[in-house]
Design brief:
This protein is α/β, with parallel strands linked by helices. The chain has one domain: 3-Layer(aba) Sandwich (Rossmann fold), CATH 3.40.50. The chain has helices spanning 22-30, 64-72, 90-93, 97-104, 117-129, 140-146, 149-154, 163-173, 185-190, 192-203, 234-255, and strands at residues 11-16, 35-37, 83-87, 109-114, 180-184. Strands 2-3-1-4-5 form a five-stranded parallel sheet. It is globular, with a radius of gyration of 19 Å.
Length: 261
């Protein structure tokens, strides 16, 4: 059977990044009548085969048939769906996943979310602190003032900030940017009508403006979407922006556009 004749549905992969609105985008996509989502948001299929991942299993051997079967488990045999959906944010940052996807998934489409790294670090700090990490830091200012830039990155290994290097690796694997829609978190939240237009054009499906703004399960009681934690102080924002400026500039160059950070 040739690639053109492959009966498997096209796959949308939301490959990252964490703390950038992937849950909100997943719910938007999963709510479309022509998209069949996995039973749980994060399938974590391909990263299991990559030594750099947190869930690496050296006994695991991925296969295209098994992957598609897991994608279709929630479709109940319904053939009306135009796309299958896998939203696993750790795919973007895990070297090796891009090669497995290229080998096993015919003609995929990728959604990548990026966010101001200062805001992401802030979100991840409070997320981890509520789980018992950083017991010596009473708040984000203290965390920022008592750790180096390298320690900021090392102590938040569930999130990576080198957007440009990760995207470059995926772009190379798939011969350019044609299969990728890069979404800037701050713009998505501010201009959801443009976000709906871009999504509609990219997937050739109709999406209307507006989406359910998800409150993550680990957020404090009474939290509102995208404002789960205390505001970032001007001190912390200024210090961290200086540390992240080089990476922001690299991403801006790669995407050939100014970023709102």
């Amino acid at each position: 059977m040739t690639r053109m004749e492959d009966p498997r549905k096209p796959v949308i992969l939301v490959i990252g990044e964490a703390k950038c609105g992937t849950s909100t985008v997943h719910e938007k996509l999963a709510g479309h009548p022509l998209i069949c989502s996995t039973k749980r948001k994060e399938l974590h299929y391909f990263d299991r085969a990559c030594p750099a991942s947190w869930n690496y299993d050296k006994t695991f051997s991925p296969s295209s048939c098994e992957y598609f079967q897991q994608l279709k488990d929630n479709c109940c045999g319904d053939n009306r769906y135009r796309y299958l959906l896998d939203s696993t944010p750790s795919y973007l940052r895990t070297p090796g996943v891009e090669s497995l996807v290229r080998e096993m998934v015919p003609d995929p489409k990728f959604l990548v979310l990026v966010r101001d790294p200062v805001s992401r670090l802030h979100s991840n700090f409070w997320f981890l602190k509520r789980k018992g990490f950083f017991p010596d830091a009473k708040d984000f200012d203290e965390f920022v003032s008592t750790t180096t830039h390298e320690e900021h990155l090392a102590t938040t290994d569930s999130v990576t900030f080198d957007y440009a290097s990760n995207l470059e690796r995926w772009f190379r694997a798939f011969g350019g940017r044609e299969k990728f829609l890069v979404i800037v978190f701050e713009e998505m939240i501010r201009w959801d009508n443009l976000f709906a237009e871009h999504l509609s054009e990219f997937l050739c499906l109709k999406f209307t403006p507006g989406f359910e703004r998800v409150v993550i399960p680990q957020a404090p009681k009474g939290a509102k979407p995208f404002s789960h934690y205390p505001a970032i102080s001007s001190y912390a924002r200024k210090k961290l922006h200086a540390e992240f400026s080089e990476g922001i500039n690299r991403l801006s160059t790669l995407l050939q556009r100014r970023l709102p950070w």
